[in-house]
C-alpha cells in the first residue's frame, strides 16, 4: 500500500510539472533566465526583461484602420499559436504589436496559444515538435479544424495586420 501511494504521488507530481505554465529556467545559450513552454499572455507581458519593451511598444503601435476593418470581417473561429523567445529582440518588438492587432480585432484570448522557447528554439516535452520553428517569433494561424492557414515568421513582410489579412484572405 505504501509503495502504491508513493508511486501515485510520483506520477501526479510528474503530470503537474509537465503542465507548468509560465515556467522559468536559466537558458545556457543566452546565460539568462527565460520563460519556457506554455505561457499565458500575462506571464509573458509581466516577465521583467520582456515587460520593459512591451508596455511602450504596445501603447505606441497603431494598426492600420482600413486593414483592421477588413480583418474583422474575415475572423471567424481561427486559432493562433505564438512561438516566442523572451530573450529575443524580434519577439520583444513584434509580440506587443501583434497583441495590439489581436486586441483591436477583439480576437478571443482563449483562441491564442503562447509557447516560449529557449535559445536553441526548443521547448520541453515535444510541445513544438513538428511545427518547424526556425526563427522567433512565429505566429501561426489555424482554421477551426486545426489546418494551418499561414504564418508570420520573425517579422512581417508588410505589417502584422497586413500579413494577417493576407493569410485570412487565402482561406476565403
Brief descriptors of the model:
172 residues, alpha+beta, Glutaredoxin, six-stranded mixed β-sheet, 43% helix, globular, Thioredoxin-like_sf, signal, Thioredoxin family protein
Give an account of the 3D structure:
This protein has one domain: 3-Layer(aba) Sandwich (Glutaredoxin), CATH 3.40.30. The chain is built from 6 helices and 6 strands. A 6-stranded mixed β-sheet has the order 1-2-4-3-5-6. About 10% of the residues have low confidence. Keywords: Signal. This is Thioredoxin family protein.
SSE order and pairing:
Blueprint: H1 2-18, E1 23-27, E2 32-39, H2 41-45, H3 48-60, H4 65-74, E3 79-84, H5 89-105, E4 112-116, E5 138-142, E6 148-153, H6 160-171
Parallel strand pairs: 3-4
Antiparallel strand pairs: 1-2, 2-4, 3-5, 5-6
Helix pairs in contact: 3-5, 4-6
The CATH topology comes to Glutaredoxin
Tell me, what is the CATH class? Answer: Alpha Beta
User: Strand tally, please?
Assistant: 6
The fraction of residues assigned to DSSP E strands is 15-25%
For this structure, what is the CATH homologous superfamily? Glutaredoxin
Keywords: Signal
Protein name: Thioredoxin family protein
Pfam families: Thioredoxin_9
Organism: Pedobacter jamesrossensis
Short description:
The protein has helices spanning 2-18, 41-45, 48-60, 65-74, 89-105, 160-171; strands spanning 23-27, 32-39, 79-84, 112-116, 138-142, 148-153. With 172 residues, it is of the alpha+beta class. The protein has a single domain, classed as Glutaredoxin (3-Layer(aba) Sandwich).
